[in-house]
Amino acid sequence: MTPSSKTNKASSMRRSKKSSLSSKNAPPLYKAPPSPFVRRFIKRVLNTVNKFELWHTGDSFIVCVSGGPDSLCLLDVLTLLQKKQNFTFHIAHVNYHLRGKDSDLDEKLVKARAKNYSLPCTVLSQEKKLQDTSEEKLRDIRYIFFEKLRTKKNADHIVIAHNQDDQAETFLMRLLRGSGLSGLSAMRPKNGSIIRPLIEMSRSDILQYLKDRGITFREDKSNADPRYFRNKVRRELIPFLEEKFQPQTRKLLAETAILLGEDYAVLSDIPTKLPLKQEAFSVECSRRVLLKLPTALIHQEIRSLLRPFLDGKNPNKNLINELMKAIKSTKSKTQTLTFRGLKFIRNGDRVRLLNF
Hints:
With about 350 residues, the chain is α/β, with parallel strands linked by helices. The chain folds into two domains: about 5-260, Rossmann fold (3-Layer(aba) Sandwich), CATH 3.40.50.620; about 275-355, Uridine Diphospho-n-acetylenolpyruvylglucosamine Reductase, domain 3 (2-Layer Sandwich), CATH 3.30.465. About 45% of the residues lie in helices and about 15% in strands. It contains 13 helices and twelve strands. The protein has helices at about 5-10, 35-50, 70-85, 100-115, 135-155, 165-175, 180-185, 205-215, 230-245, 250-270, 285-290, 295-305, 315-330, and strands at about 10-15, 60-65, 90-95, 120-125, 155-160, 190, 195, 275-280, 280-285, 335-340, 340-345, 350-355. Strands 1-4-3-2-5-7-6 form a seven-stranded mixed sheet, sandwiched between helices. α3 (about 70-85) crosses α8 (about 205-215), α6 (about 165-175) crosses α9 (about 230-245) and α6 (about 165-175) packs across α10. It is elongated, with a radius of gyration of 23 Å.
């Protein structure tokens, strides 16, 4: 998925300049010496890094910083590790201009922290008013920006501050909405160029880290809005489960998501040897050969076939179920289904997907 040319014109990537970060407008950063808790925290982060082989000595990063507690914790941890690990990094921030002055204050804080740490910082300013402000749309905008910046700076990784609580919440949200193995595996510690060093750290430990280090941060007020599904899961469902059923609900859900991710990675690597006829805007295969595969591999193969038509995203459960019905049907050997720019055609033994 790529932003439209209009969006590109409205958006601007701008490098922070020293003139805009004078000591008068840069909030002071008091960094207390690492306490015993902070040293243990950093050791646990390094355990995660080593366990999942997130980076190697000398790598370079694009570090995504929102101004919230998680990303400022991540930024501070990386600065403490920088000498020993011999890596370099560049801060990236997105200002969607959706929360008025609060959005600008977030940007101001991130730029100030960049100055405090003597680090370069690039901001994407989404000045054109967005019609679609869904979580998915905003995610697309920032991840496209992060990847473009990574390519421009020739960096090895994009570093995201997702933590254990985020993982648990995402797992539950996808479970409640209905999801297969790929969805339930949620956020992998390492996924292509994206790495998540804090994925095994709880939100409460992150807040304790910031307190011990004397680091201030900004809170997004929308995180308390009960209209959002994630906030209901975070503030109502998980506390209920912890109180009534399992005190370690967050930790166990997050660990389950990582284990499922490892299973999914193995499943994804299994070669199916499905003969394909591929053209510029279509792909075709044999229904008979496809149905010889185990059901899990059929689903995996359908996802693989669909991704190029869905801007690289995984198809949802409903789409896969509809296609499976059409493929398995013995009543009609000729079927045509359409889904938002995608056409599925079954003609006898041939199954074909194409853009239209």
